[in-house]
Backbone:
């Protein structure tokens, strides 16, 4: 069940009304049942794996509290099992093929023949963070029901955000009725996300998918246009999903953290990662980069920590060399920026432009199906004669419009304190009209429905 489906919207409306007329204790069970239906709709394998992961984490927590003197060892074993489970589902087939291992065994064929359980990369990281925080003494005892909701809440289960215990569990524990302003804001946020996904991302996909399917048939100018448009697609797709999830949660009275904040207006690679997939970047910082030493050691040690963290980030995204290279590329960008800022300071508009160009080039590495395709595209870029149509080719209005709209929305995010205040001061009728127009555009101008990109991760 995806957020843009009629089934989800209808069920969300029913649950939102039900939550308004039930007691606090009953509201937890309503949300739990809704989340269970949401998970079961995703398939039997996804449901079973999630239940096993939740049971494993709860068992580790119980054992760690019972045998406190061995809590670190118990937690380490639990984390090892979680990582091993993720590895077998997501990476074993790829690693085995690289090592030329036999793929005929039952233990291999089982994991390869079944589709990757939806959301496993996200709720595994969330569970690992909870176990580590528990070992650090940062968590409080909670009921099993509250923990299950923390790990499986419908609004952040499949593709994040990756929430911390102190962001969600207190809300799950209290769970007051959603206020009118929350329901209104949640509905507006959901419609905005629907617009990003169906009008921007899905329509852009129709233009660029044929180009990436046969890049050798297109000139470098067209390929650059496709890369620019893919940067719009992946932002609209992923941030649109986040907006819909956060909006749905608000309708149910729960606030989830932002996962995007105008990433294409970042003026440095490090700021980009504070604006793009914010909760993943925060997880990598707190549970990988800082424990390795962060930037507290020598310059070389800092570079090693950065590269290792970003390699893990790339590998987390998928079992393919292009994701590993993409992670290494961003690690290199972060390293070069740390060095370059010691010698030169660009004006902010120029810094934003330079950062955007490097990020867009990184999306090429992220998007290609294999290294052969990447090599073919890069080779075509080096053919100077192929750019002879650069100024004579007709301007693709779709490319300009999509990019301009994406940047305009992100510019609005940076001015949110002012625009948000102005928006709240508008009459309800005016806000409803704007939301209605966005909804109309999302339905009438939608592209061919495409799966959410991050569902694959």
Residues:
């Amino acid at each position: 069940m995806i957020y843009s489906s009629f089934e989800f919207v209808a069920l969300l409306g029913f649950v939102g009304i039900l939550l308004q007329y039930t007691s606090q204790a009953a509201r937890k069970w309503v949300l739990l049942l809704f989340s269970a239906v949401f998970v079961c709709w995703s398939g039997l394998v996804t449901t079973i794996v999630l239940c096993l992961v939740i049971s494993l984490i709860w068992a580790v927590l119980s054992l760690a509290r019972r045998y406190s003197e061995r809590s670190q060892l118990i937690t380490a074993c639990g984390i090892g099992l979680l990582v091993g489970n993720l590895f077998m589902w997501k990476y074993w087939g790829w690693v085995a093929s690289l090592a030329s291992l036999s793929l005929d065994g039952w233990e291999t064929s089982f994991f390869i023949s079944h589709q990757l359980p939806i959301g496993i990369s996200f709720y595994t990281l969330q569970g690992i963070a909870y176990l580590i925080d528990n070992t650090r003494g940062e968590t409080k005892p909670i009921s099993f029901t509250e923990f299950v909701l923390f790990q499986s809440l419908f609004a952040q289960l499949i593709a994040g955000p990756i929430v911390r215990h102190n962001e969600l569990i207190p809300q799950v524990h209290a769970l007051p009725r959603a206020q009118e302003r929350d329901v209104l804001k949640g509905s507006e946020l959901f419609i905005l996300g629907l617009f990003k996904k169906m009008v921007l991302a899905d329509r852009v996909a129709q233009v660029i998918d044929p180009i990436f399917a046969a890049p050798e048939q297109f000139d470098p100018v067209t390929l650059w246009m496709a890369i620019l448009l893919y940067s719009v697609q992946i932002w609209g797709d992923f941030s649109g999903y986040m907006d819909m999830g956060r909006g749905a949660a608000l309708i149910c009275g729960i606030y989830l953290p932002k996962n995007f904040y105008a990433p294409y207006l970042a003026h440095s690679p490090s700021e980009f990662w504070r604006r793009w997939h914010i909760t993943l970047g925060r997880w990598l910082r707190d549970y990988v980069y800082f424990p390795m030493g962060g930037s507290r050691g020598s310059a070389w040690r800092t570079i090693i920590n950065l590269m290792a963290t970003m390699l893990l980030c790339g590998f987390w995204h998928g079992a393919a060399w292009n994701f590993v290279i993409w992670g290494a590329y961003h690690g290199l960008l972060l390293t070069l920026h740390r060095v370059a800022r010691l010698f030169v300071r660009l004006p902010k508009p120029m810094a934003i432009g330079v950062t955007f160009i490097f990020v867009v080039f990184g999306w090429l590495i992220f998007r290609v199906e294999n290294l052969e395709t990447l090599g073919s595209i890069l080779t075509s870029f080096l053919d100077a004669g192929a750019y002879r149509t650069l100024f004579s080719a007709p301007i693709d209005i779709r490319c300009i419009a999509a990019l301009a709209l994406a940047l305009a929305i992100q510019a609005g995010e940076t001015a949110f304190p002012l625009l948000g205040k102005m928006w709240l001061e508008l009459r309800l009728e005016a806000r409803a009209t704007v939301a209605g127009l966005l909804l109309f555009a999302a339905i009438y101008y939608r592209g061919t429905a495409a799966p959410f990109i991050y569902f694959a991760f």
Q: What stands out?
A: The radius of gyration is 23 Å. The mean pLDDT is 85.
